[in-house]
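Students often ask why we bother predicting the structure of a whole assembly rather than each chain alone. The short answer is interfaces. A chain on its own may look different once its partners are present, and contacts between molecules only exist in the joint model. In this exercise we take two input lines together and write out one structure for the complete complex. Read the inputs first and try to guess which parts will touch.
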Amino acid sequence: MIRLEQLRFGYDGEDVLRIARFDLGPEEQVLIVGPSGCGKTSLLHLIAGLLLPTAGTVTIDGQNLASLSPQARDRFRGRHIGIVLQQFHLLPTLTAIQNLLVAQSIAGLRADHGTARGMLAALGVADRIDAYPHQLSVGQQQRVAIARALVNRPRLLLADEPTSNLDDEACRAVTDLLLGAARQHGVSLVIATHDSRLKAKIARQLELPRREAQAA
Amino acid sequence: MTLLQLAWSYLRARPLGTLLNVFLLALGVGTIGFVLIVDGQIGDSLTRDAKGIDLVVGAKGSPIQLMLAGIFHLDVPTGNIPLQAAQGLAKDPLVRRAIPLSIADSFRGFWILGTSPEYINLYHGEFAAGHGWNGRMEAVLGSTVAARTRLGLGDRFVGSHGLAEGGPVHGDSVYTVVGVLKPTGTVLDRVVLVNTESIWFVHEGNITDPDEQKVVEAERQVTVLLLQYATPLAAVSLPRRINAETNMQAASPAYETARLFRIVGVGADVIRAFGGVVLATAALSLFIALYHALNERAYDIAVLRTLGARRFSIATMLMLEALILAVLGGVLGLLLAHGLAAALAWWMARQESIPIDPWSFSPKELWLLAPSLAAAVLAALLPSWRAAQANISATLARRT
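Now the answer. The structure tokens for the assembled complex follow.
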């Protein structure tokens, strides 16, 4: 599902990130861990095609992202990669179901109410589909955000710090939600986090070293 | 959930800002549209009224006044000319048609014109009821006059001297309505027509002494003579001859109307320029709103990109927001323009002046959407480009 080879990424000729080789198979799960500033988010963005590597390749489902045109890369991301952002950012001017519908049509797929409603129901927010984000509880917002990430049936789900600022109970709920949804929909799951509470849940971990430049 | 719906959702989310921008655009388009409608309609109306009249001949004075009084009946005449001189001119071989007008009295704000049946033919007037005059003190009413005064066949009325209502009344000279004309969309609708002898009779009184009659007849006058040339060559020699060799004045309606419009046109230009300034303000306000949206919505834009939106789609979304406002503002502006025209039409109708039809829409008016759309596109250009260029990874990585 994911293959990273001789991956290097950095700014101004200075490497932030160096990964010789990494593979993640279908329906596998991995945590990207490390201290803040070690490049976790950068790695997630490289996998999502939001950033391009300085050297090496990122291959998703057999597709080298750097070889795609920018438009094709955007389209590929929309169709094959689901992303759950920090704070589960929903578009504030759209209702819950519209947040899913916009994800469908932006990816070039048909905006299908049935699929969207089904996905929201699967995440337990069937009764809140016409609510605006500010009318939803934080927990409900998280569920809608995960539903949005999964509505186009991606093969890969990425989550960036999904549990930061959450208490233990909420942390457990979100983690269970992500793992459950990943299992149920047969997607590979990558979570970037510095939250050690997650380590108990996901065995495989990719530890990024503290950068020399940042050490000082 | 299309980009258009997405753009609309953002506009709906900030109703006050949206309203302000729509209102500014509407005001700009409305002002420009108002000038366009009124300018066009008055121009058309004056052209219709002056059609078939090559030259107005009257007493010396201001040529514009002569034209306003002689053709459009919007001003008091410059004076009178001797009947004999007018008759001489009518017989000139360069003149095909000469219509005399005697203008002295009015009835409830409408001029009473002493003339010949030719005047009705000039405007292709047809009778809605009754017939033309057969003698003295028989009157034919224009359609507007009939509607406004509620007079019909057989009704009687008296004229008053001058145009002002409540002026000295010719109480012993009573007109009888014998005909009412159909609407023509010309000045004919707004006048009372009688034969020339009626005017003389009203002002001379009933003279019985034959000697006195002779003296009075020799001094008879008309106010203006409307001329149609027999040949285009007449335009070269006739006006010059009248102005140089007689006590009369000749004015060309085509030339004087153009001159009048150049004078009044400055006012129209000022209003138009005001509309332009408002539109520029609207563009600026829109630009600020969209530029603001860039910062406010940086994270939203990043989210859309993670969902697979291309740079071009993001730019399109902002552009669509501006275009929605432009169309709303433009359409509202057109309605405003017609509303303002309606207000002016109401005021001008009260003055018995040139009629304006404020609710006639011409497809050409859709061009008025162009400045609104142009303002919007101009305002959205930079914000759209900036939004498309935004560094998504950096926005998402910013811990807020």
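Check your guess against this: The radius of gyration of chain B is 31 Å.
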